[in-house]
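Example 4.3 (complexes with small molecules)
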Amino acid sequence: MPFRSIFIAFVIGSSLIVAALMVNRARPAGDTSHPLPAFTRATGRCAQCHREETAAIVHQFERSQHSQANITCYDCHQALDGQDDLEHYTFVLAREVTSLNCQACHRTEYEQFARSRHALPAWAAVRGTARLSADQIAFGERYHPGAVDRPPNALALLEGPAAIQTGCLGCHDIGRPNPDGSIGSCTECHSRHSTSIALAREPQTCGQCHMGPDHAQLEIYNASKHGVLFNAQRASMNLSADPKLLTTADMPIPTCATCHMSGLDGLKVTHDTTERLSYFLFAEVSEQRPGYLSGQTEMQETCLKCHASSNVNRFYAEAEAVVSATNDVVREVEELMADLRSEGLLTPEPFDEAIEFLYFDFWHYFGRTAKHGAFMGGADFVQWHGNYELLLKRTELEEMAAALRRTGGRDEPGSASLVEHF
Ligand code: HEC
Ligand code: HEC
Ligand code: HEC
Ligand code: HEC
Ligand code: HEC
Ligand code: HEC
Ligand code: HEC
Ligand code: HEC
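Answer. The structure with heme C bound is encoded below.
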């Protein structure tokens, strides 16, 4: 071979090698930071097939803390006592991986979660006691009297099974009873194979369910000073910090998780999102919770990592004033509705007259929004999506009530427009 051809072959050959190295460098960290031999040891034969079958699952797992801690696919997927078997090649897997599989290694988190409103009360709101054992009902009632042993919400019954399954339960199945006797789903916040705390600390993750006019927490947060700063500065924050070591240096701006769950600067981490609350803000009329004092103390300990006590006290006093003012307005209209019912102008059934829907919007959308806005720094939500709407809807409700009284509940010419409006 003439020298020129050898030289050209050498140049082409080495360019290919350099190019290959550059491509390799550009691959995502997950592909190179876990060398294949160690990874194969940790996941065994599952990954051999699943690199072909469902490759993304293997990659998500590869990037997780579990993979680094040498947890295997089988550690989660094996069938435990009480779970249905799934014969899978040479393995016996759980037909459904549930919070029981997580609980085997994370008992504390499971126990805190199981006693929170994210567990049985969330399920009972939509399905009542369906599929719950007597023990589960008793367990849930111990922590949340009246919130588990109750009928399904009237709207769920009226809208029917298809709407419940993909609608209500799309959010409320965070607390579903599993066939193996365990409660709820851990993967709603952590996902199945990334099992990430960074993901769980993202406001957007909570906002999958905590959004919309009846619980606008995500919208309120995004409009608040906290949300604006977080969205601007998130790149510089360490969302993966170990919960037991999380400091305000990792996250100087709070997300939903910081206030409701995190153990900031030495505080206790909790999976019981009820612990730091002092009012039933979601209710028609918001009463204090049984743990009013401890709820406020625990939440305020978090605020105090970043704010002076004078500011926190003022903030709470102002928010509590909004709760009590909203309660006053709602009580007034609640009485009006009760009067119409006792005057025989409304049937005892819920949601069969237009005015009942308007009253529902009145407290469920606007009353709640005013209260949530006040506690989470959303001025626009206290005002234009809250108090202004309360005023408007109250006027409309009073006019509808007057029309009902005038006509004794029969249609009168012109009243149709009033109803169509809603
Ligand atoms: C011999 C190849 C092979 C091995 C080994 C293997 N799988 Fe699979 N697995 C498959 C195939 C093929 C599917 C079906 C994929 C589909 O439906 O698209 C599957 C499906 C699954 C499913 C979904 C089952 C369902 O019906 O819902 C799970 C979960 C699963 N595998 C987990 C595992 C785990 C965990 C291991 C190791 C303990 C493992 N697999 C080992 C090939 C394999
Ligand atoms: C931290 C626990 C955990 C680990 C580790 C884990 N899985 Fe899973 N996996 C789950 C859960 C939870 C589900 C969803 C529940 C179900 O469908 O049973 C799931 C579902 C799946 C599915 C069905 C997914 C779908 O959308 O159809 C496959 C396939 C699967 N896993 C394979 C694997 C493989 C392969 C590995 C290892 C690389 C692995 N899993 C490791 C918890 C885990
Ligand atoms: C076989 C035991 C085992 C099982 C089963 C298991 N985990 Fe883990 N998990 C671990 C270990 C070990 C770690 C790493 C702990 C550490 O680094 O301190 C971990 C870490 C985590 C973390 C923290 C991850 C991070 O980003 O720091 C989360 C969240 C988590 N697991 C959730 C789950 C969920 C959800 C399930 C069920 C779907 C589950 N785990 C099943 C053992 C397990
Ligand atoms: C899959 C849907 C879903 C996700 C994701 C979710 N939640 Fe919830 N959350 C609910 C439901 C449903 C309820 C209402 C439970 C009930 O019926 O009282 C609720 C209630 C709450 C409550 C009130 C508890 C009480 O005692 O009244 C807090 C606080 C809360 N969630 C915080 C969070 C935070 C913080 C996150 C994210 C880290 C989050 N949630 C993620 C569905 C979800
Ligand atoms: C987008 C997610 C989502 C959907 C869909 C959803 N909910 Fe909720 N629901 C929530 C969240 C989040 C809360 C907690 C609100 C709060 O505490 O501020 C909640 C609270 C409730 C409450 C008050 C708390 C309690 O336990 O009494 C009831 C009742 C309720 N939902 C019933 C339903 C019904 C019935 C449906 C379907 C007709 C439904 N929800 C659809 C997310 C959802
Ligand atoms: C409502 C969302 C949500 C649900 C549901 C949830 N987690 Fe978490 N989890 C979080 C958040 C947020 C953190 C990080 C807390 C922090 O910022 O310190 C966390 C942290 C963890 C950790 C790390 C704890 C530590 O101290 O190192 C584990 C393990 C864990 N979760 C397991 C689970 C298990 C098991 C379940 C189901 C029983 C579950 N999680 C359900 C949001 C959730
Ligand atoms: C700066 C701290 C902080 C942040 C950030 C925050 N919250 Fe809150 N949240 C509060 C306070 C304070 C309350 C009212 C507590 C009480 O009842 O005493 C509250 C109330 C709630 C409630 C009402 C429970 C009820 O009784 O109806 C839910 C649900 C909730 N927050 C979810 C979220 C979600 C989801 C996010 C993120 C999108 C979030 N929070 C962000 C501090 C915060
Ligand atoms: C991790 C730190 C952190 C936590 C926890 C925290 N905040 Fe903040 N907060 C901030 C930062 C940073 C700002 C923006 C201050 C500025 O404008 O520079 C802020 C702004 C505010 C503001 C608007 C500005 C002001 O001072 O009037 C209010 C109100 C507020 N926080 C209330 C609270 C309350 C109430 C809690 C607890 C429920 C809380 N914060 C928890 C960091 C935090």
